Amino acid sequence: MGLMAISPTTEKYDYQFERVWRSPRRYLSILKRFQGVILPDFSLYRDMPLCMQAWNIYRSRAIGTWLQDNGVDVIVNMRFGDERTFPLCCDGAPHGCVIAVGTNGAIDDEADRSFMRDGIDWIVGELAPTTIVVYGSAPEDIFGRHSKAGVRIVAFESDASIAHKGGE
């Protein structure tokens, strides 16, 4: 038994877990086989209308609440678009918990890295997580200061981040 991530992390794969949103009962027995589930990582982009960003955060939290109510342990996935969504992505997440964050497609250039850095700083300041589970690469310039401050950083490199390293 391990950890299940409902998090393909890019919009082109959102359809893969859209079915969990539409028919969660169908997948409950499968998800209960795992020790825990990282909540869905519905895509958010800085140029998305705020209401759509809020909707995708809401959907992740709603699935999480439903799973918890049905006996599944969950790890809240932190996904944010622009700075307006920093507080929204913390809504419903417990203080001092384990959180997850995906970096695929979110640190491709300096503007993306800056938003990721600012978002992680905001989240750590608000929630004081004990552990951050990172799906994708966990760059020192984004996660290093939190690791040094005692937050455990557990990185699971994605196929995309491994391929990117091969090209460097």
Characterization of the model:
- By secondary structure, the chain is α/β, with parallel strands linked by helices.
- β3, α4 and β4 form a beta-alpha-beta unit.
- 46% of the residues lie in helices and 15% in strands.
- α1 crosses α2 and α5 packs parallel to α6.
- The chain has a six-stranded parallel beta sheet, with helices on one face.
- The chain has seven helices and six strands.
- It has a single domain, classed as Alpha-Beta Barrel (TIM Barrel), CATH 3.20.20.
Domains (count): 1
Query: Class, according to the CATH hierarchy?
Result: Alpha Beta
Radius of gyration: 15 Å
Count of alpha and pi helical runs: 7
Number of strands: 6
The averaged pLDDT comes out at: 87
Order of helices and strands: EHHEHEHEHEHEH
Strand content: 5-15%
Strand order of the largest sheet: 1-2-3-4-5-6
Question: What is the CATH topology assignment?
Answer: TIM Barrel
Query: Would you identify the regions where 5 or more consecutive residues have pLDDT less than 50?
Result: 6-10
Biggest pleated-sheet summary:
6 strands, parallel
Query: Helix amount, in percent?
Result: 40-55%
CATH architecture: Alpha-Beta Barrel
